[in-house]
Amino acid sequence: MIRRFALLLAFVLLAPQSPASAQRGGDGDDGPQLDSGLLSGIELRNIGPALMSGRVSDIAVDPTDHSTWYVAMASGNLWKTENAGTTWKPIFEKYASYSIGAVTVDPHDPLTIWVGTGENNSQRSVAYGDGVYKSTDGGRSFSNVGLKNSEHIGMIRVDPRNSDVVYVAAQGPLWAPGGDRGLYKTTDGGATWDLILEIDENTGISEVHFEAGHPDVIYAVSYQRRRHVWTLINGGPGSGIWKSTDAGATWNKINKGLPSGDKGKIGMAVSPIRPGVLYAIVEAANNRSGFFRSEDSGQNWSKQSSYVSGSPQYYNEIFADPHKFDRIYSMDTYFMVSEDGGENFERVGNRW
């Protein structure tokens, strides 16, 4: 149908016209004539109906040039724009994975790009990846640097003091136990990896965060899950929040005030304005889900509201505004925002 419409449109536009019919306007208007010469530089293109894109799993912005972005698609490559989104080009088509879960730009070197393959949700249609890739030339080329059995990468963080120190939150296989699952650390730019936080064969790490101004203080979010054809086991005792004060050498579980019992997917954010203030959106059993806040670096949590995203396996990901304290953005079917630390949420809206 689209092809027939395009051919018909081309026939109408390119058909010979009389000077009178080709005239733009009338009553003495001597504008250009709509003829084959005028249209020769215009290529036919598909004008609809629009096709759905896939899930956008992550976005990274060049810290030195805010018009350069990298956008990771859950089932369609890694894309780059150098003009704030006016034009795009795919930059990951020659590699083994088409599904991307995380992308990060090195804060010291904007030409160094880290990519975690395999989307970071738990649907039946989830696509897996083959580990972590690194580019040192702004995405013109990539090398696989390991964790090939991770299948799903949730997040990547680069130590702001040392580009060779990188943390990878590996969720691990969705349909099977084991694999490269947990929080991994490299101190040599990806040449070797150490598993620094391991929970169990069914629980991976979905997020990793630094405390603002204290990169040796690290928070990690664990998520227990298993997909079967007939169901999703979406949670368990392995899910929770962990803290290290020595760059990942030792860990403690910090869940005082969070829902007891089995928990599902947890999203976390660290205040970039006030150190020690943390936020968590928690999926939990027995109707105990909600939004939580800590003022003491996670030692104690208080429930702000019962808000969770419409489908935590897709969303439950939050961001703290870097300019206004206690403003929190929540990924959801409709983009949500709180101005009071999670007590109330409303739609961001579409005006801008």
How would you describe this protein?
- This protein has 352 residues and is mostly beta strands.
- 6% of the residues lie in helices and 35% in strands.
- It is built from three helices and 26 strands.
- The chain has helices at residues 2-14, 19-22, 36-39, and strands spanning 56-61, 69-73, 78-81, 89-90, 100-105, 113-117, 132-135, 143-146, 153-158, 166-170, 182-186, 194-197, 203-211, 214-224, 226-227, 232-233, 240-244, 252-253, 263-270, 278-284, 290-294, 302-305, 318-320, 328-330, 336-338, 346-347.
- The chain has a four-stranded antiparallel beta sheet, with no helix packed on it.
- Strand 13 and strand 14 (214-224) form a beta hairpin.
- The longest helix is centred in the first third of the chain and has 13 residues, at 2-14.
- The two termini are 35 Å apart.
- Residues 1-26 have low confidence and may be disordered.
Please give a handful of descriptors for the protein shown.
352 residues, mainly beta, four-stranded antiparallel β-sheet, 26 strands
Major sheet: order of its strands?
1-2-3-4
Average pLDDT works out at 90
Low-confidence stretches: 1-26
Distance between the termini: 35 Å
Beta-strand portion reads 25-35%
Radius of gyration: 24 Å
Q: What's the oligomerization state?
A: single chain
